[in-house]
Write a structure and sequence with these properties.
It contains ten helices and no strands. The protein is mostly helical and 201 residues long. Bound molecules: ligand 1PZ. Residues 24-153 form the Glycolipid transfer protein domain.
Length: 201
């Protein structure tokens, strides 16, 4: 049951971001984000684009490594500002913004899934979430490749079975993730906006 591990990790992060005066340790954040890696094992049985997996894993691992040098997300971003490399490809801050979008995409997906029953719903939900969160930031070639990958996603029931999920366990944990991840991504939006970095790049 992958959904429980994901939901619990984000609930813990939400407690940190919702406690005034607490900063988010980079390691806690990257650990929570790496909970999604297990999804890729199952997605490999379809034609899901491997470049999406590589992109996400590389960025999360980059933050895991950064945690050795900078204890909190806030300090990590400050160091990139000082080094004048916030928007540079591969910078921790740039990777953080991409990861934030991934978390938002997964949230929209969960919201749509919680709202529908059809067996096609995983494809529909992923497509809706991708279009809403990522498509405005991706060029045509990536959008085409992603659309092909999404078309090859397995039906929801098959995927749930591979994860040992029932409709009930999935719904409970998806709802927790929706609530907890909203706190986390709000925190990240504020982190970027409070430092005048913008969130639309
Ligand atoms: C059931 C789960 C289905 C997940 C479907 C995911 C569809 C999204 C696929 C996105 C492919 C993006 C390919 C790479 C794009 C890069 O150019 C950009 C910019 O990178 P930079 O120039 O800053 O290094 N990368 C991104 O926008 C981040 C893409 C992350 C994709 C994560 C997908 C899976 C997330 C799952 C876990 C949360």
């Amino acid at each position: 049951m992958a959904s429980k591990g994901i939901a619990d990790a984000f609930k813990e992060l939400a407690v940190i971001v919702n406690t005034p005066g607490l900063d988010v340790p980079v390691k806690n954040f990257s650990d929570a984000c790496s909970r999604f890696f297990v999804l890729f094992k199952v997605l490999k049985t379809g034609m899901f684009p491997r470049f999406a997996e590589i992109d996400y894993v590389t960025k999360v691992n980059d933050l895991a490594e950064a945690s050795n040098l900078t204890p909190t997300l806030d300090l990590m971003v400050d160091r990139d500002i000082e080094a004048n490399c916030v928007r540079k490809v591969g910078s921790h801050t740039r990777n953080l913004l991409r990861i934030k979008r991934s978390l938002e995409m997964m949230r929209v997906m969960c919201e749509v899934l919680l709202d529908t029953e059809s067996d096609n719903s995983l494809r529909d939900a992923t497509f809706t979430a991708y279009n809403q969160v990522f498509a405005p930031h991706h060029g045509w070639a990536i959008q085409q490749a992603v659309a092909t990958g999404i078309g090859s996603l397995l039906p929801k029931t098959l995927l749930s079975a591979m994860f040992n999920e029932t409709e009930e366990t999935f719904k409970i944990h998806a709802q927790s993730y929706v609530t907890a991840s909203a706190s986390v991504t709000n925190y990240l939006d504020n982190l970027f906006l409070s430092k005048n970095l913008g969130i639309d790049w």
